[in-house]
User: Fold TetR family transcriptional regulator from Marinobacter santoriniensis NKSG1.
Amino acid sequence: MAYRETEKMRQRKAEARRRIVECTYECVAEGGFRSARITRIAGLAGVATGTIYRHFESREDLFAEIFRTATQKEVDKVAEALDTPGDATTRLENALRQFAERALRGPMMAWSLIAEPVDPKLEEERLVYRRAYAEHFERAIREGIAEGCIPDHDARQSSTCLVGAIAESLVGPLSPTLASQNSLTETDKNRLVDSIVRFCVQGLTGSRR
Amino acid sequence: MAYRETEKMRQRKAEARRRIVECTYECVAEGGFRSARITRIAGLAGVATGTIYRHFESREDLFAEIFRTATQKEVDKVAEALDTPGDATTRLENALRQFAERALRGPMMAWSLIAEPVDPKLEEERLVYRRAYAEHFERAIREGIAEGCIPDHDARQSSTCLVGAIAESLVGPLSPTLASQNSLTETDKNRLVDSIVRFCVQGLTGSRR
Assistant:
């Protein structure tokens, strides 16, 4: 009987944690990390604010978990897109295109993950994940060099150029303060994605797209 | 007599402020914003820590001033390099090269300005300055399009690709935690700068460099 109660409590705790994470995610996707207040999250999750701090040491730790989960999903998507059949340039093009399109479909979350000014702890996570993206790109670039569709060059270095170019060129369009986030038409978005991809692929191959 | 004393005090205050700024700069250039402690700065400047807070509301405000002054200098250098004679591609190439070379010559300061995880206030300054770099690049790209040395495309968008590509590709080499900062030979540095510039110019022109 004692055992069953403990099991039930464990389940209840896990369920509360899941709801906290889910509601934090919603808050961030709606207004960024800055606007995700603990009281608001607690209200949405139907728990006391104290409960949040039983699951997470601090607001920063909760945010770090959201950041990691959401970013890892994007990293996995890039890895998947790079893992499809086709020559390396096409795979890189698809991965970059998909990354930008996904960001523009969830602009506030993408802004929060890519560029929102956040505390140094989260900023450090960002640096780690940027390395993760770069490593996936680097592998594909090396494959492209081996296949002959990309001229021989320092793949490690150009992989970071890709990460920087795509992230930075999305900052403006995603920025909620620049107010362009909601004013982009589908045509604008397509044009934006095309031009990011063109710059990146030209940068790698040195051939006009 | 009262007037003269006030004037003297004003001069002494200005001199203390100048020393505080100078010593903060030194600390940041040596170990980044994180390691620039107020007690250390006060010691170097020969003032009480309280004096620092009479000149700056907070550590963040002092850091913001250092950040702005140091970054504005780099923005001006880019603007200057873009303003020399020659075709736009060459001017862009020179400006990018100079930016990267200067960063590699003062790696800790460059790391602090470009990528060190800092508090959100400073991070917002970073976004502002990234726009400033992009605007200078954009103007030169437009000139290149008008001159015919750069194919017609969205200059605003590609200017942000340049900013992202050059900044991100310097993060690894400059990072003090990755410990590569001091292990780069002159040949490594030249190769790195060449490959960043090549990626960027190829991205803009679509012609092999």
In short: Chain A touches chain B through 46 residues (CB under 8 Å).
